[in-house]
Structures are given as structure tokens and as C-alpha cells.
């Protein structure tokens, strides 16, 4: 195990960013990815450990103009119990509900889920469907700098993101979906609890006269990064919901995913699952409210 | 070895101050440093719930928590559930319903059950089943555990505290 020479648990974001910029640092949120990765030797801690957990501005879910702002430290439990999200962004709540176990949900943060950058990260898929953007902060040497990035541009590969050295994810924002927006998330695992997704799918759009418009589709665990299903979305967008559109969407999905075979499933099985789940989600979206 | 850090917190109602290596997990601190061995190490990776404790009233897997993060918080372990009046409602229910066989999962299940009862004293059996998804038991088959937690719901309805 690597040697940690500096530790800080600041209350201010500025102080945290300064500490993270000073020397190579590991940032700590809930620790649910970090602790097992360190213990298994998959990853070593940097010489400096910066614990974000006492930074109040990184907490909380709130309305922000015509959008919603999730502080990076928002836990999965907080998402699950939030009335505004339950009402207007149920697809995110659905993913929170299928996340690990109660104890894990109490610890795991949304920021950690994104920054860990697993292709199977369960909150990433609904946030892609919701068109989320990230607020990233860093210390320039004299002040705190903020930049914004669409979530879909954040991921580089398994475990790697566009976060610069010392950069901290402060918040996730997405526009509050209009009342005619419908979306669904489905994850497939071998048991309902405590299972990493073999694959996952999210589909959302605005319902207009038997069609879905402004469609967004995202796939988990079928590419090196969480994948935006643009071709699948195009196959759905504006077409009457029903068997023909479903068939077109299913074949677009199979064509654009890039699954691998690993301990959880073969590439062939993942492709089968993606097609089945895509068809089921479209059926659910079609029948919702009828 | 990494540097150590002095932290203080409340453990089962008692003010506690110790120095821990900054990369130590809370479970190791509780068992090996503070010598409270009621909390168990099962998997060490968040899968089994044997290490469940309450931090500021919230159930967490202590094997995944950094010990330094306990600074300033209120911790409750299985040793802290009994009151001067005796065992807690749920502890009694576990005994009365035979919800303990080898006992290894029991501290974690009792802590998790306590958390569930405090969050929602009107738990249904379905809530109980979902609520203990993060606790593995290789002996009881869970049925008696569920019965014990459901019995505690009844006792609480009659006026006992979780
Ligand atoms: C038993 C078990 C079951 C699990 N089940 C699921 C599951 O069902 N679905 C799922 O998606 N995941 C699951 N996970 C993975 C994990 O719980 C989640 O990815 C969780 O959201 C990580 O959040 P955290 O706060 O614990 O992150 P941490 O472990 O604290 O951090 C994760 C990574 O992100 C970095 N980081 C964290 N916050 C920030 C920030 N604000 N800015 C910059 N970098 C940051 C850290 O440096 C680290 O590299 C599971 C893990 C375990 C151990
Ligand atoms: S020992 Fe912590 S969950 Fe198994
Ligand atoms: S009683 Fe033996 S593991 Fe649960």
C-alpha cells in the first residue's frame, strides 16, 4: 500500500481544490469504490488524501433555474427519497432503487459514481438520458476556476475521465424534464441486490401523439465507456411507437454497442440482453399512462 | 506506513479520541484498535453486511469507510444497543425467534434491522426483505430473521423503542 503523507478534510471547496492541486492527491467521497480498489491493490493512494465529505456546498439536491442541481456528495439514498426527483426525474430514482444495498446507498455518492467512470456505473445511464452537465472546479494557483462539461464528453475509458489533475467534480445539473417527458432505466444482473450491471439501458423522450421526440438513449457495460445510443435514439425519434419502431431500434442498438466478453457475460449474451431490454423499455414507455 | 491523524468521535455514547493511520478502514479501527469485536469482518468489500454500524444514525458498511472519516461523528456498534434496562427490542426478538444460528451475521443484521425500524417503525415484511438485501446469512435462511424484525415492529407499535 502506498504511503499517504498528507491528509485534509476541509470544509471549504476552495481549500479542497488548493490541497488537491498542491501535490498528487486522491479525492475521497463515500469511499465505496476507493476502499476496495486500494485493498485489492488495483489502485494506490496518492501522497495526499483530500476528504471532501465535510464540504457543505457539495451536498444537497435543489432547483436551479429551470433545472436541478445535484451536489457531487449527494448519496444514492438522498436521490431515492427526493420528492422532486421522484416526480420529474423518476428514471434517476429507478436507477438509485436498483443500486447495491441500503448500506451502500447510504455511503455511495453520485460524484463518486461518475468519477469512478465504470462503464457499468448505474447513475451515469439515467443522467445521460436526462442530458446532464458537470460543474468541475480546480485551483489555478490564485483562485477557484470553474468549467462545464456535458456528461457524455466526460468519459475517456474504463476508470478514466477528462478530470484534470487536482480537478474536483462539484455538481451535476440537468434541465427539469417537461411534464410530457417519459423515461425508463433497466439493469440486468444475476440477482436483484448487490450486483454490478451485466448491461443496462436508459431511454427517454417527450411523448407526442404516439411517438417519442427528443429521444436520448444510453447503454451501460457494453463499451469502454457508458455509451450514448445516438443511432438507436434516431431510430425511435418521431416514429410511431410500436413493433416496427421497436424492431428498428433493437437492430440499431445491436449495431452500435461494442460489448466485450468478461467474467460477467459474453459479448454475445450482452448483445442479446441489450436487444431484449431495449424492446421492453420501449414497450413500457409506449404503455405508460395508457 | 501512512501518516496517522488524531480524531475524536462518540462511540456508543462515549467520547473517544484516538490516532489512526489515514488509510485504515473504520472496521479495523473498531475491532483491532478499540477492541470492540462485536462488529464482524466477513468479506471486507461491502458485500455481506457483517460490519454494519450506525454513523450519525445511518447504517453503513464499516469495512468501506475510512477511519479518519469518523472524526466528529456519532458511531453506534452492536455493543451500544443495549440500555441499562437490558437488551433492545430487536435483540430480544432475535433471541425469542431463534434468528441466530452461528451468529456471525447477527451483529450486522441487528444493526441493519435497528436502522430500518428507526427509519420506518411501520415496516412491512416486503420492506424488511428489501432492507436486509445487503446482509448475508449462511445459516438461518433469513425466515427467522424476518420474523424477528417483524415481531419488533409489533413491540414498537405497543410502545417500545427501537
Ligand atoms: C458491494 C458494492 C456494490 C456496488 N454496487 C454498485 C451498483 O449497484 N451500481 C453502481 O453503479 N455502483 C456500485 N458500486 C460501486 C460504487 O459504490 C459506486 O460507484 C459509488 O457511487 C462510488 O461513490 P463513492 O462516493 O463511494 O466514491 P469514492 O470511492 O469515494 O470515489 C470513487 C472515485 O471517484 C473519485 N471522486 C469521488 N468524488 C469525486 C469528486 N467530487 N471529484 C473528483 N473525483 C471524485 C475518487 O477519487 C475515486 O477515484 C458498488 C460497490 C460495492 C463495494
Ligand atoms: S465485511 Fe463489510 S460488508 Fe462484508
Ligand atoms: S447465523 Fe450463521 S451466518 Fe447468519
Descriptive overview:
The complex is a heterodimer of chains A (290) and B (162). Chain A is of the alpha+beta class. Chain A folds into 3 domains: 6-51, 2-Layer Sandwich (Uridine Diphospho-n-acetylenolpyruvylglucosamine Reductase, domain 2); 56-175, Uridine Diphospho-n-acetylenolpyruvylglucosamine Reductase, domain 3 (2-Layer Sandwich), CATH 3.30.465.10; 184-287, CO dehydrogenase flavoprotein, C-terminal domain (Enolase-like, domain 1). Chain A has 11 helices and 14 strands. In chain A, the strands form 4 sheets. In chain A, strands 4-5-10-6-7 form a 5-stranded antiparallel beta sheet. A 4-stranded antiparallel beta sheet of chain A has the order 11-12-13-14. A 3-stranded parallel beta sheet of chain A has the order 1-3-2, covered by helices on one side. In chain A, strand 2 (25-28), helix 2 (34-39) and strand 3 form a beta-alpha-beta unit. The mean pLDDT of chain A is 95. By secondary structure, chain B is an alpha+beta fold. Chain B has 2 domains: 4-80, Beta-grasp domain (Ubiquitin-like (UB roll)); 89-157, DNA polymerase, domain 1 (Orthogonal Bundle). Chain B has a 5-stranded mixed beta sheet with strand order 2-1-5-3-4, covered by helices on one side. In chain B, helix 2 packs across helix 5. Chain B is globular and about 50 Å long. The N and C termini of chain B lie far apart (41 Å). The relative contact order of chain B is 0.15. The interface between A and B is medium-sized, with 31 and 32 residues. The structure holds flavin-adenine dinucleotide and FE2/S2 (inorganic) cluster (2 copies).
Amino acid at each position: 500500500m502506498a504511503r499517504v503523507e498528507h491528509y485534509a478534510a476541509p470544509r471549504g471547496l476552495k481549500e479542497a481544490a488548493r490541497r488537491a492541486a498542491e501535490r498528487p492527491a486522491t479525492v475521497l467521497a463515500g469511499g465505496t469504490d476507493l476502499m476496495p480498489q486500494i485493498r485489492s491493490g488495483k489502485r494506490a493512494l496518492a501522497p495526499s488524501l483530500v476528504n471532501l465529505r465535510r464540504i457543505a456546498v457539495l451536498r444537497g439536491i435543489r432547483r436551479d433555474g429551470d433545472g436541478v442541481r445535484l451536489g457531487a456528495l449527494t448519496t444514492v439514498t438522498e436521490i431515492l427519497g427526493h420528492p422532486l426527483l421522484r416526480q420529474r426525474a423518476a428514471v434517476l430514482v429507478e436507477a438509485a432503487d436498483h443500486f447495491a444495498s441500503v448500506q451502500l446507498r447510504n455511503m455511495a455518492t453520485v460524484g463518486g459514481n461518475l468519477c469512478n467512470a465504470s462503464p457499468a456505473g448505474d447513475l451515469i445511464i439515467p443522467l445521460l438520458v436526462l442530458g446532464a452537465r458537470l460543474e468541475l472546479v480546480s485551483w489555478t494557483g490564485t483562485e477557484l476556476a470553474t468549467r462545464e462539461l456535458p456528461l457524455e464528453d466526460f468519459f475517456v475509458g474504463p476508470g478514466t475521465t477528462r478530470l484534470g489533475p487536482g480537478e474536483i467534480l462539484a455538481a451535476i445539473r440537468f434541465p427539469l424534464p417537461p411534464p410530457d417527458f417519459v423515461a425508463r432505466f433497466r439493469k440486468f444482473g444475476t440477482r436483484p441486490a448487490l450486483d454490478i450491471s451485466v448491461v443496462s439501458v436508459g431511454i427517454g423522450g417527450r411523448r407526442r401523439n404516439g411517438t417519442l421526440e427528443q429521444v436520448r438513449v444510453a447503454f451501460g457495460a457494453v463499451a469502454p465507456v457508458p455509451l450514448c445510443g445516438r443511432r438507436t435514439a434516431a431510430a425511435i425519434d418521431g416514429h410511431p411507437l410500436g413493433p416496427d419502431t421497436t424492431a428498428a431500434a433493437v437492430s440499431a442498438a445491436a449495431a452500435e454497442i461494442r460489448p466485450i466478453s468478461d467474467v460477467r457475460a459474453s459479448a454475445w449474451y450482452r448483445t442479446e440482453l441489450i436487444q431484449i431490454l431495449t424492446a421492453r423499455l420501449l414497450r413500457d414507455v409506449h404503455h405508460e399512462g395508457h | 506506513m501512512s501518516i496517522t491523524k488524531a480524531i475524536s468521535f462518540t462511540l456508543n455514547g462515549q467520547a473517544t479520541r484516538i490516532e489512526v493511520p489515514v488509510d485504515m478502514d473504520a472496521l479495523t479501527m473498531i475491532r483491532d484498535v478499540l477492541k470492540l469485536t462485536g462488529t464482524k469482518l466477513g468479506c471486507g468489500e461491502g458485500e455481506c453486511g457483517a460490519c454494519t454500524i450506525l454513523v450519525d444514525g445511518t447504517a453503513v458498511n464499516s469495512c468501506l469507510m475510512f477511519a479518519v472519516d469518523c472524526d466528529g461523528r456519532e458511531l453506534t456498534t452492536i455493543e451500544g444497543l443495549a440500555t441499562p434496562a437490558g437488551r433492545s427490542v430487536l435483540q430480544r426478538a432475535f433471541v425469542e425467534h431463534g434468528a441466530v444460528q452461528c451468529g456471525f451475521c447477527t451483529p450486522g443484521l441487528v444493526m441493519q434491522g435497528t436502522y430500518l425500524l428507526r427509519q420506518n417503525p411501520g415496516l412491512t415484511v416486503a420492506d424488511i426483505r428489501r432492507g436486509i438485501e445487503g446482509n448475508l446469512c449462511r445459516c438461518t435462511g433469513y425466515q427467522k430473521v424476518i420474523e424477528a424484525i417483524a415481531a419488533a415492529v409489533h413491540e414498537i407499535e405497543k410502545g417500545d423503542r427501537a
